[in-house]
Amino acid sequence: GLEKSVRVGPFFDVGQVWSNLPGQELSDVKLRYSVGALFNWLSPFGPITLTFGVPLNEEPLDQIQKFQFALGQAF
Does the pTM exceed 0.70? Predict the structure, then answer.
């Protein structure tokens, strides 16, 4: 049934970011945090995942991607 093919839930994510801008060292690595929600459906065409996230400690030069869509599986 549908209840076995759909998953919805919150997430908390942590990742390292660094800059390759002149004058910045690799030691300038920072952690970024985000929270959000995901929707995963095992459709007849394959897995479909929708993700919406919001950064918690965004910096001015960060490239923010709040919404992601994926069709298929990652290998």
Answer: no
